[in-house]
User: Fold this.
Amino acid sequence: MRRLRPLRAILAAATAVAAAGLTALAAAPAAEAATPLPNKVFAPYFEAWVGDSPAALSAQSGAKHLTMAFLQTATAGSCTPYWNGDTSMPIAQSVFGADIDTMQARGGDVIPSFGGYTADTTGTEIADSCTNVTAIADAYEKVVTTYDVTRLDMDIEIDSLDNTAGIDRRNKAIKILQDRAAAAGRPLEISYTLPTTTSGLASNGVALLRNAVSNGAKVDVVNLMTFDYYDNQQHDMARDTQTAAQGLVNTLANLYPTKTQAQLWGMVGIIEMIGVDDFGPAETFSLANARTVYDWAVSKGINTLSFWALQRDNGSCPGGAASDSCSGIAQNTWDFSKIFAPFTGGTTQPTNDFSLTASPASGSVAVGSSTTTSLRTAVTSGTAQSVALSASGLPAGVTASFSPSSVTAGGSSTLTLSASSTAVNGTYQIAITGTGPSASHTATYALTITGGTSNQCTAPAWDRTKVYVGGNQVSHKGHAWKAKWWTLGEEPGTTGEWGVWQDLGAC
Assistant:
């Protein structure tokens, strides 16, 4: 998967290693505590390097399962993986552990993904980097036991697809890991994420899967990256998804001749790049495409539906190019997630749905005063339903009221935001949520407070080398800032309205 940012032996010996590793897996959280993924799961990619909380975005988007990208070594030649290859983000409970626990408690989970475009082009994909098969298996095992997960993903593309030694080491290590898990009674799945043409895998992708078969490594899911075709053609992205998947099933039928057609389709995963992909507007995956792919995926009984990436599921840059933080098309926040989320467990899309917008989407209020915005709903499918309205993210000293507090889809409400004398100057992002019987949607309103308490720069100066967690405050360039979640090295004022730092105003 593309990352557009600074920063991704012998059988007897394998058997001996597997026996040596049984204690570690058995000593992990009890096998019965690890819950297998549903047989149909929506798991969009989560960009782990931007400082967002996976649990928070999971709750906001409705995506209960996330694919966490990416795990890679810090340098070529190393056998130790880190999140994003960042040595300050080791495989440890202290890094994402609390978020993953929260998601699992809510009935969701994560799929840690090894590799990715950057790792695969810099020699830091672990099986390319590390020549010790046992050490690779140990690294996989550490991720499984640290986070108590039941699926690992291998995102292999570009240079890694042609590194035959790395491919062989990876599949041997997967076999060792699977033997350990089986001996410990622990559920474990392996998925391979691979680039595709519109007619299926290229020859190097087929060779990778053939090597897995020869090494006895069980591949449960093959995720096709149905984007970035780079063939200078205009694309119907939904149709191309279907032809690519059919080509994959034809390949899998040759590799696994005893499987039925239903079982083969049950090995298929699809990853879209929502909105405009890296190639440009000729490869644009629209909301209409998403609905078509959803219906097709349900009808075929595929295993995994995903997209790149959760942080892009908003319309803050319509008409733009591919970006880490927006889709490049006009949409509401979480529109793609709402379409795909019912796929988990094989459910169907809600027959009744609606949209929610705030007009205007921003405003200013002086302390002691109030401002209003109109909340408009519209029926997008099925029949009108009752929509309850609520607001979150209100800064101290600000209250919200709705008139009315519940509407029938198609109706409008007025949101009044009142600032008391204790309100603090600054601009705040307020989330307005409409909740109906079968769907929910969120709109964002940017509220600027003036004439209130001026933040004094009493907070310590921001330090690039220090780790900050949600609630920590710093001063930087004449403003006070508050961290929304864990962050390291991200400069206040550079992360945008959806970023980690909330501007509390001048001081």
